[in-house]
What we know:
8 helices, 0% strand
Amino acid sequence: MDLLSSTIWYWVILAVTGIVSGVLGYVFGKSDTSSSSDKSIELNILEIENAKLKSDLETCRKRLDSDHTKSFKFDSKIKFSKNEDFIFHVNEAKAIFGKSIKENDLKLIEGIGPKIEELFHNFNIKTWKSLSETPVDKCQEVLDSGGSRYRIHDPASWPMQAKMAYEGHWEQLFDWQEKHRAGKY
C-alpha cells in the first residue's frame, strides 16, 4: 500500500507540473503578440532609414555627376536624365490631394509646417527641387537652427517626398503620406 500511495503522488505531481507548464506556455504565448507590433514599428523605422539612405545616395550621385562634368569633357551623345521639363499642373495635384496645392509649397511635405518652412527659406531652400537635393544631415541642421523645440521632427523622408512632388508623382506621394500620416509610424 505504501508503494501504491507514493506512485499516486508521483503521478499527481507530474500532472500538476504539466498543467502549470501548459498555463505558463499559454501566458507567454499570448504575451508574444506585443512583439508583432514591435516588428511593425521596427519595419516602419527601417522604411524611414531606407528613405534616408536613398536620399543620401541620390545626393552622392549628383555630387559625383557634377564632379565628373567639371573634370571631364563628355561626348555630346551622353545625356543626363534630368527632369528640367517638368511643368507643375495644379489640377492634377488638386485631384489627388483634394485641395489646392501651390507650386513649391514645402508645407505639402509630411512633417513640415509653416515654421519649419520658414527655417528652410532662411537657408535658401525654397523649392521642392532644392529640398529634394538637400542631404538629410543638412535638413537636420536647418531644424537645429530653430532650437530644441524642433528636435522631435525627423527629416529623413523629406528629400524623398520633395522629389516626388517636384517630379509630379502625386499619387505616389499621397499614398506614402497616408501611410505615414502625422508622424505616426
